[in-house]
Design goal:
Strand content: under 5%
Radius of gyration: 18 Å
Order of helices and strands: HHEEHHHHH
Distance between the termini: 27 Å
């Protein structure tokens, strides 16, 4: 009962965090729209974007494709395909595809509303941050029509991938720390 009372006290903080994260997701996606970051990858990118989006969906919805560590840790191949959609020239399409895929899988697995809201916001923020990085490096129109990839674009692609991974991990670490009632640093040290 003591543990439940502690969890009940931490729940409003988790709800606040998820609400703020949802607002941040809306702002960042809005910034992508304001920057005119592509939704349509153009003629050369439509089929690859669609194929990678389908692979994203399959990778996230088929548990037999996941790598697992213990009871809770898992890695899905979906992020690689989501980032591939960004790279073929559809950053907004990638954000939409990854959010819809996560909404589908979370609803299908009957996850709670707070978990669903967190997951949708987390993936939107993580992938949108990488799209912003690619925009700064001039890679937002995709890489399919580039005959020779400039060094600046390659660096942007590398940094964008790292940003996706780091932002995603940081957002997850924070929500777990808040939920468990432990400082982020203590949680990271234990992990």
């Amino acid at each position: 009962t003591h543990q439940r009372s502690d969890e009940a006290q931490r729940l409003p903080v988790v709800r606040l965090y998820v609400g703020i994260l949802g607002a941040v997701a809306a702002l960042i996606v809005g910034q992508l729209v304001a920057l005119d970051v592509p939704l349509d990858p153009g003629p050369s990118g439509r089929i690859p974007a669609l194929l990678f989006a389908v692979l994203l969906f399959i990778g996230e919805t088929q548990p037999r494709l996941w790598m697992r560590w213990g009871d809770q840790a898992q890695i899905t191949p979906g992020w690689a395909f989501a980032y591939a959609v960004v790279l073929v020239g559809s950053p907004l399409g990638a954000v939409i595809a990854v959010v819809l895929t996560h909404l589908y899988t979370d609803v299908r697995h009957r996850k709670g509303a707070l978990k669903i809201a967190f997951n949708a916001s987390q993936v939107a923020v993580s992938l949108s941050c990488s799209a912003l990085v690619l925009h700064v490096f001039g890679v937002d129109d995709g890489i399919l029509d580039i005959e020779h990839l400039p060094v600046q674009s390659a660096i942007g692609i590398l940094i964008g991938g790292i940003v996706t991974f780091v932002v995603n991990g940081a957002l997850l670490t924070i929500v777990i720390s808040l939920h468990q009632g432990v400082p982020v640093r203590s949680f990271v040290n234990r992990s």
